[in-house]
Amino acid sequence: MFGTYLALIIAVLVIYYSCELFINGIEWVGKKFSVSESAVGTILAAFGTALPESVVTFVAVAINSTAEQKDIGVGAALGGPLVLGTIAYAVVGICLLLFRSKRKIGTEIDIDSKKLSRDQEWFVSIFIFKVLLGLFLFSFKPILGFLFLAAYGLYFYKEMRAECDDTCRHLEPLKFQPRKLEPSTFWVMLQTLLALVLIFTSSQVFVKNLELVSSYFNISPIVVSLLLSPVATELPEILNAVIWVRQGKETLALGNISGAMMIQATVPSAFGIFFTPWLFDAHLIWSGIVTLLSVFYLLSVLKKDKLSPQRLIYAGFGYVLFAAIFIFYPA
After folding, report:
1. Most CB atoms closer than 10 Å: which of 91, 120, 262, 288?
2. How far apart are CA 156 and CA 302, in angstroms?
3. Which H helix or E strand runs over 37?
């Protein structure tokens, strides 16, 4: 077991430093291709870190999958948004407090509340439909998976159309070319892609060793798929948020989370609907309910323009609530 724990620690460290490389590279990608700062967080960063998870979900539900593997794939499609809508936002709040002395604006949050609330409204409308589909069985359900892909396509188009404004964008030198004020596109892309490969590989190492620990302690697969694995698979987004908040770029941190939530609500869900019955048990229904409660809470705060570190931290109690329901009221 010592080797397993050591592998978990090493994987976390590799993910963290890979995220350092990734966010540095993805910001330069945004500048090179004239992408707005908002879209860098909601589309480029979110797509980069969430795409490997979507591939894993696709493999789980579509390629030589047993019934148990398909259940785990569906659980991951619900568990990802739960973790992002609770723990990830809480981590941003905690980091705002921890790094307040290093930030020019302290604990103040420099964010467009209307923009973030619109993103959350997009998520809620799609997620409610996603949960409702899990309550009913009918023959043409697989066709509806295309609606989720279309929804993300529309969101992608909307975000990428935003005008780019580089006047306030302050970028650190590219890690692979630290002495150049304007790095070459080749090195920008190489650093970003290498970072993604490292994030994907180390995340899989983390998940596999977490499963070994779970089996050692006889933790059931459903607990792993809904409570533990999503935390591991969303680790890149969470660590991206830590780094960006430390740098005073909470717009990118929060945008990365909301953008990743949009991907998790659509792409993995489409795969699940295509290749599984997409029928929810009590655990999955509770997961959906708690996720919606957390996002509705955040929406109410954003609508009043009263977002603060403390209120972000409160979102984390949604995950605690789900864990308590899961443990004390098993299905």
Report:
1. 262
2. 22
3. helix 37-39
Task: Tell me the average pLDDT across 100-106.
Answer: 85
pLDDT in tens, 39-90: 998 999 998 888 767 777 787 787 756 776 777 778 888 889 999 999 999 9
Element (H, E) at 247: none
Q: How far apart are CA 120 and CA 104, in angstroms?
A: 27
Compute the C-alpha angle 75/77/81, nearest 5°. 110
Greatest extent of the chain over all pairs of C-alpha atoms, in Å: 60
Q: What is the dihedral of CA 11, 15, 18, 22, to 10 degrees?
A: 160
Question: Considering the chain, what is the average pLDDT of its residues?
Answer: 88
Q: Give the H/E segment covering residue 165.
A: none
Which one-letter DSSP state was computed for residue 228? I
What end-to-end distance do the CA atoms of the chain give, in Å? 31
Burial of 9 (0-12, 13-18, 19+ CB in 10 A): exposed
Model confidence at 221: pLDDT above 60:
yes
Residues 279/137, Cβ–Cβ less than 8 Å = yes
Find, among 73, 132, 136, the residue nearest to 292 by Cα. 132
- pLDDT for position 142: 93
CA–CA separation, 4 and 1 (whole Å): 5
Angle at which helix 113-133 crosses helix 145-160, to 10 degrees, equals: 170
Q: State the Cα–Cα distance between residues 197 and 210, nearest whole angstrom.
A: 20
**Euclidean distance between CA atoms 269 and 200, whole angstroms:** 20
Give the per-residue pLDDT at 87.
Answer: 95
- Angle (CA) 324 223 86, round 5°: 55
Calpha distance 107→6 (Å, rounded): 35
Of 86, 105, 94, which Cα lies nearest the Cα of 249? 105
Q: E strand or H helix at 227, and its extent?
A: none
